[in-house]
């Protein structure tokens, strides 16, 4: 029997390793806990040719063991941006990652000076049972980060950090939310934590930067999922009704730049792999042994979601 554990990492393919590290570590207060040369077995797993190499930096909040960011800088290969000039309603790949901050308005002002810009000014949002200040900010490599501060229920954050947070949530924009729920719950065995809808009843500013003359005709329906049933590391799938965007699904693959893929921990991965095959899941990469530092040798396989999100599942063999 297998056990789904957590999302260990989100991989972020960067154009400038030092600039991105400076933002998360020197500004945000997160820690770089390892620097590695990507093992050839991983590059082969990604189907990259022999002239390609990569440098990695693993970043985490404090000692939090999950929801980490692995920055990857590829060398010797042409790249495209995964979600170039993106809008939140464009489908394909990972739309954003979510990080908690002590004060959204202060973060908004500070990181604009570092070259980021918001899709709106900070807004108070109600999402299901939660009330929070939220701002979507565009940054390096055309990624979006949602910086949030939860108002209700209140959430106390560690002091002394600009970004006192692991990647606790992230967003995927999908074409069919019902089909997405079926895939993640009935096929992959994930758990639904919450469902909510964001819809405005007046032509007002909104966090997605949808034109105000259109916003009353647009709704965002979302489902929040978890591998292990907890809220430690979640992700949400969002379907926008009333507006149509671009499809980046074909670009959400290594070595393209931006938020690249999820890495998830599984106990008894052979059982999980065989269970998925029995459900008719098509594997993007078959189960095989590769070397991912700092874990060492791992058994790993990869699959793609219906909207082109690359998922890797692994278990250490040491």
Description of the structure:
15% of the residues lie in helices and 40% in strands. It is mainly beta and 318 residues long. Strands 5, 6, 7, 8, 9, 10, 11, 12 and 13 form a 9-stranded mixed β-sheet that branches. A hairpin with a 2-residue loop joins strand 7 (123-127) and strand 8 (130-138). It starts with a strand and ends with a strand. The mean pLDDT is 96.
Write down the overall mean pLDDT. 96
Low-pLDDT stretches are: none
Rg value: 19 Å
Considering DSSP H and I runs of 4 or more, what fraction of the residues is helical? 10-25%
N to C succession of SSEs: EHEHEEEHEEEEEHEEEEHEEE
Task: Note the main sheet.
Answer: 9 strands, mixed
Please provide the count of β strands: 17
Give the strand content: 35-45%
Structural class: mainly beta
Q: Termini, distance in Å? A: 20 Å
Shape: globular
> What's the total helix number?
5
State the main characteristics.
318 residues; mainly beta; 9-stranded mixed β-sheet; 15% helix; globular
Indicate the topology.
Blueprint: E1 3-13, H1 17-27, E2 31-37, H2 40-45, E3 53-60, E4 68-75, E5 96-100, H3 104-112, E6 117-118, E7 123-127, E8 130-138, E9 144-152, E10 169-173, H4 177-187, E11 191-199, E12 219-226, E13 234-241, E14 258-267, H5 269-278, E15 285-292, E16 296-304, E17 310-316
Parallel strand pairs: 1-4, 5-9, 10-13, 14-17
Antiparallel strand pairs: 1-14, 2-3, 3-4, 5-10, 6-8, 7-8, 8-9, 11-12, 12-13, 15-16, 16-17
